[in-house]
Amino acid sequence: MGARDKLRRRLTVLALLTLLLPAGCSYFRQESDPHTLVFLMEAAPTNLDPRIGADAYSAHLDGLIFSSLVAHDAQMNVIPDLAERWETPDPRTYVFHLRHGVEFHDGRELTSGDVKFTFDTIISGAVKTPKRGSFRLVASTEAPDAYTFVFHLREPYASFLFGLSRSAGPSLAPARIFPASHPAQTPPKL
């Protein structure tokens, strides 16, 4: 085999690679479901349960999927989210009044029972989560009616409201879907 044949083969291989490489990188769009959201993330979240996931990716997805009692605006002021308003009758009691007509993905309405479920499973330790430490001063919770939720604190805690906000605290988990104990022990009901 002469030098000319070797050169010809190398050029042929190079030409084939030049033509085939872009074909391997192309994306062929399939017919998609209009009810499906597709997006790209740099890494996968560690958990989709809003009570548990504390990494940046989980928190980002939680913020897109779930809501909290309160959020904060661009100036970091605490503003209503699922709670339309709240009051503090004394420095150790926070009473939240939920918005009416808020529904989960399955059409079931949000109630104070869902709020109580979310916070009670975190506070009791039934769900292992790093978010539990944020609620160490919560003595008890109560849901006196379907749209009222109350936190009773052991002592005044100035940043309690901010700790409940969407970026810092847990988003609300529908009691019907998420397990009351650690998810590794009980799979969610879908």
| pLDDT averaged over residues | 79
Number of helices: 4
Task: List SSEs in N-to-C order.
Answer: HHEEEEHEEH
Name of the level-1 CATH class of the domain at 67-164: Alpha Beta
How does the overall form come out from the CA principal axes? elongated
Q: CATH homologous superfamily of the domain at 67-164?
A: Dipeptide-binding Protein, Domain 1
Strands of the biggest beta sheet: in what spatial order?
3-4-6-5
CATH architecture of the domain at 67-164: Alpha-Beta Complex
Q: In angstroms, what separates the terminal alpha carbons?
A: 67 Å
Helix percentage range: 25-40%
Q: What Rg is obtained from the alpha carbons, in whole angstroms?
A: 25 Å
- pLDDT < 50 stretches: 182-190
Task: Please tell me about this protein's structure.
With 190 residues, the chain is α+β, with helices and mostly antiparallel strands. The chain has 4 helices and 6 strands. Helices cover 26% and strands 18% of the residues. The radius of gyration is 25 Å and the shape is elongated. The N and C termini lie far apart (67 Å).
List keywords for this structure.
190 residues, Dipeptide-binding Protein, domain 1, elongated, alpha+beta, disordered C terminus
